[in-house]
Amino acid sequence: MKSFSVTVVALMASRAAAFAPASSSQCTVTELGAAMPDRMWDSMVDKTERSAALPFLPRPINLDGSMVGDVGFDPFYLSSIPKNFAGIIQPPTWEETAGLPTLYWMREAELKHSRVAMLAWFGWLATDGAFGVTMRFPGDIYSVESIPTSYEAHNVLVEQGSMGFLLLAVAVVEFCTSAVMVEVSKGESDREAGDFGLDPLKFLKDKSTEEQNKMKLRELLNGRLAMLAFGGIATQSALSDSGHIFPYFA
């Protein structure tokens, strides 16, 4: 009987020990937590401020309102990703450079796409006769009989070879614009993103900084709208049942 009691006490003690916290496990968890690196998120946002455009999100760290057109709209926080974009236009193994930060590269891309979209929106509608006159290059290959609508222009021009010249022209422009980006990445130029000094009508001549920023803001807002507008007319034209003819709603 005595040996049976000892056996029961031993079993109960062993089961109770199974529920007791293990000190070695605590140490392991504590050490693991201490070794965890800081989250990148903490360096990508300013937790003390809210985005002006999206008040339910914290402000992206690089969008502090100092840049023209900056309203804090970056729901995916792409502008906060630390990256040197100089390697895209120049192999980084050539020489050491100061680099192109993410925000500079994205503003350059935004302005380039904005300007192209403004031209593309007008060109698409003009060649479809949206402004009362059907505007085409001279020559039978560009006539309405050869290219009925803007929607069909791409495939027709590829087949007749005109798109090859356009590709060459775009390549020359990209090569020339990349040269100045290399200068910026090397610290040889303090050029503002998107500024090519192209102002043939002297809109910015003898203007104050405030007036220049207003003009830059107008270009940026119109460019952002044009990117949406061009996507809209291209999509609606493709979905149109009226032969892709303006106004594309039939």
Main traits of this protein?
250 residues, two-stranded antiparallel ribbon, 2 strands
Strand order across the biggest sheet? Answer: 1-2
Q: How would a crystallographer describe the biggest sheet?
A: 2 strands, antiparallel
Instruction: Enumerate the spans where pLDDT stays under 50 for 5 or more consecutive residues.
Output: none
User: What's the overall average pLDDT, rounded?
Assistant: 83
Give the SSE order as H and E letters: HHHEEHHHHH
Helix content: 40-55%
Structural class: mainly alpha
End-to-end Cα distance: 99 Å
Overall shape: it is globular
Tell me the number of helical segments per DSSP (H or I, 4 or more residues long): 8
Radius of gyration: 31 Å
Number of strands: 2
Textual characterization of the structure:
The protein has 250 residues and is mainly alpha-helical. Helices cover 52% and strands 4% of the residues. The protein has eight helices and two strands; from the N terminus they run H-H-H-E-E-H-H-H-H-H. A hairpin with a 7-residue loop joins strand 1 and strand 2 (58-60). The longest helix is centred in the last third of the chain and has 31 residues, at 209-239. The radius of gyration is 31 Å and the shape is globular.
Write a brief caption for the model.
By secondary structure, the protein is mainly alpha-helical. It has eight helices and two strands, in the order αααββααααα. A two-stranded antiparallel sheet has the order 1-2.
